[in-house]
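Design job #97: recover the sequence.
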């Protein structure tokens, strides 16, 4: 039983590696688009301040608005 599982896992892993090989080795296209960094100059205000990844004022608005939505 273990031998069958090990052999099946080996065959599936080899098939996955061999199947992904041609795509990984393909030449890149000639018409590659170069994209600039996004303009984030307008995102530094009090509504987008997120010290822990969560906007503080958005979180406060959600918490204060929750009782209204529940009723």
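Job complete. Output follows.
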């Amino acid at each position: 039983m273990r031998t069958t599982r090990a052999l099946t896992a080996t065959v599936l892993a080899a098939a996955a590696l061999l199947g992904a090989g041609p795509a990984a080795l393909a030449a890149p296209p000639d018409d590659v688009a170069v994209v600039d960094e996004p303009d984030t100059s307008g995102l530094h205000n009090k509504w987008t301040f997120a010290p822990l990844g969560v906007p503080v004022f958005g979180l406060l608005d959600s918490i204060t608005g929750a009782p209204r939505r529940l009723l």
